[in-house]
Specification:
By secondary structure, the chain is of the alpha+beta class. 25% of the residues lie in helices and 43% in strands.
């Protein structure tokens, strides 16, 4: 049945994410939105097995679903998945994008969502990158947690502005 079909990723962005970004004022100056922003990070990997020790460079490429910027600062990276996907699949992908932030001196924030569940992340790059996850917010609790998601989005917008 169509009424039970999961929302596809593009529908999640259109129906759930876009109104949230509007209510959080991310469509207004000094912010701007870009979509499908390409990133590429490379990491030197040392493979050490019984036969040989080898150093290789691994390149990870991807596209950020939605990126909120202020001037040239990456403010918020958003990775959305279709509603039937677990957020656990989006978290490593979002962390990879956060590591590609061209301004590593600033914390990077991310929101992963599937239209039903929402989780925020913060990454700080010091000597070694450290990240933290927020509580997971869901539409399936008695109290509508979408308001909490909106409040956090607004606070992220105030941190930078």
């Amino acid at each position: 049945m169509l009424e039970n079909a999961p929302l596809l990723e593009e529908a999640v962005k259109l129906v759930v994410l876009s109104p949230l970004l509007d209510l959080a004022d991310f469509y207004r100056h000094p912010f701007y939105i870009t979509t499908e922003e390409g990133v590429e990070i490379s990491e030197e990997v040392i493979i050490d097995d019984e036969v040989n020790t080898e150093e290789t460079k691994e390149i990870i490429k991807g596209k950020i679903d939605v990126l909120v910027l202020q001037n040239q600062l990456w403010l918020l990276i958003i990775e959305s998945k279709r509603s039937s996907f677990s957020l656990a699949k989006a978290i490593p992908q979002a962390l990879t994008y956060m590591l590609a932030n061209p301004h590593p001196e600033n914390p990077a924030y991310s929101l992963v969502m599937n239209g039903e569940d929402f989780q925020f992340m913060k990454l700080i790059k010091q000597d070694k990158p450290m990240y933290a996850l927020s509580d997971r917010f869901t539409l399936y609790r008695r109290e509508n947690e979408l308001y909490k998601v909106l409040d956090i989005l607004k606070k992220i917008g105030q941190v930078i502005s």
